[in-house]
Amino acid sequence: MSDFLKIQGLQARIDADGTPKDILKGLDLEVPKGEVHVIMGPNGSGKSTLSYVLAGRDDYEVTGGSATFKGQDLLALEPEERAALGLFLAFQSPVELPGVNNANFLRTAVNAVRRARGEAELDAVAFLKAVRAETKHLSMSDDMLKRAVNVGFSGGEKKRNEVLQMRLLQPSFAILDETDSGLDIDALRIVAEGVNSLRSPDFSALVITHHQRLLDYIVPDRVHVMAHGRIIHSGGPDIAKTLEKQGYTQFLEAAA
Amino acid sequence: MPAVTETRETVEKLAKSSYEWGFETDIEMDIAPKGLSEETVRLISERKGEPQWMLEWRLKAFRAWLQMEEPGWAHIHHPPIDYQDAHYFAQPKKKPGPKSLDEVDPELLKTYAKLGIPLHEQALLAGVEGAEEQRLPVAVDAVFDSVSVATTFRKTLAEAGVIFCPISDAIREYPELVRKYLGTVVPIVDNFFAALNSAVFTDGSFVYIPEGVRCPMELSTYFRINARNTGQFERTLIIAEDRATVSYLEGCTAPQRDENQLHAAVVELIAMEDASIKYSTVQNWYPGDDEGRGGIYNFVTKRGICRGARSKISWTQVETGSAITWKYPSCVLAGEGSVGEFYSVAVTNNHQQADTGTKMIHLAPNTRSTIIAKTISAGHSDSTYRGLVRMQPKARNARNFTQCDSLLIGDQCGAHTVPYIESRNMTARVEHEATTSKISEDQLFYCRSRGLSEEDAVGLIVNGFCREVLKELPMEFAVEAQKLLQISLEGSVG
Questions:
Q1: Cβ of B447 and A94 within 8 Å?
Q2: What are the structural domains of chain A?
Q3: pLDDT (tens digit per residue) in B381-393
């Protein structure tokens, strides 16, 4: 298996009101090129932390282990360098940027990434053409391009906007953190369709959820069960069915 | 490391980067000796070839100034200013009013080039005579130190009946107009700095838009302090007669120097019935070094009066420069149904201090005013919004809406909001909203995860924060202002 995303013994902690709290406790995970993996697990197992650590959020301190992406030490890179390298994180709760025009934000992001990848920047006309094609594909109204980034967007609109960004930035590896949005079927479907539309031998994804329902829309190559900051079980899509019937108990006991 | 910490560090780093436009142009100057006395006032008046009434006006102001004290109520701190330790008159040794660019000192043109401001007016200036038809409708009255050395478009403007010229020319050529309006909005005894300005002002612009005329182009002036230790005392007077409309742009940069420099301008706007004046400023005087040494002291009195019914005065300002900014562009709403607006972005970094805001004085019924003030503080800077909304007894059904938002970058800076509201009419309505926020780590991380550098992310977020104000600027100014915001906060991160 070629090295694409490889995580070994990853440990990370967060500062919780002055006391460091260990969240990731030696996590191992590999996602090969072209595969879609799903991580499931109960609340508090560290799923969101994993996505933030991989994308480079400051608040988390990596205390051990490694993570490499396309052979590079991912943890040594700034978030924007990771984006340029092809990593994309779709946020569970997309952040609002008041007053920042969405189209302007998208174009700034696309051109920042293109610049870093040594590609020519898109001028306003070329960008508009590209973005129009995508909004049409996602059945988004042009109005969403004129509004401030995520401000006043409905849950579904926010998800569509994340998928729009993902499609425009053309990542080779996308992390989709859907930990808490499981109850919103529409949002889930939008994300799933976004991932499915990008599936190719050159695109991988890691979808994080604690609702089996997501698997109604995405057929993953592998499913991982996460608990207490580690992957405690990995297997094919059929794991989800076991989870649906019996919950996490069986896996938790086996891991104990 | 938390983003905010990094942000602060970069703010500190910014302080180290030197002022981009800090350079001095070597043009021969005609400088009056240091110091301020009746002699100085007489010298200025004489050099300007002014009529007797003007000299008397100046002397009256000077004598009043001697009796006045520097105001101490603003939230700013500076060592005492020695008013005797400055030159009050500096004039490039050039024949006034060149008709073509060939007559303009090449050094001056180089200065324009270095400014990099939307001087497509550069090309525009270069073709003073022939290029008139095909270029953007912007007229420039370039104030190079105290004297306007290049004025363009006077011809086109003259055809429309618009007068746009250095105020010293106006004093000589249109004495009856100047005499009628000068000092009627900002009286010579209005305040310490206004009195000082009235005594020693050396230049500025004069604009007169006759009845029913929509000024055919944006009027634009670029100010620049260029002589070591020369105080700048600009005087601008804009009059819009009934149903006249004008948009005036003012922008400035200043070269780097050690001494603190005093800048005390006065701007007076007069709008008659159904007239409209839009006054936009981008201010980028040298703010001082990372210890706050050597920046410009900017004590400005700007005031407009809506004399006629349904007239409108709109102030838009983007303030990024100066060590100290003391400035309250105001509107006196005397005409029934008149409208006052104030849109402001004030950015302070390092050790800059800004105490700025507006006064909306509602005298007449059905007057309306809007105040949108955005304050951004970084480094060790301190920024205060100070605003007065006064509803006089006759201001029936008058309305004001005020919104003051402060954005803090790092934890060494300060932002203060000081609204004064006085209502003497029961039917008047005054609304005030204020927020204070920081650029959140969530926002920075979100942007960076999309490939933006931390610096670009801050620029984007700050521009978003200021959007309501920036969109009020004329197009070519908006672009410059956005760039300026980015430059002002450059290095404020990563």
A1: no
A2: 5-97+155-255 (3.40.50.300)
A3: 888 999 999 999 9
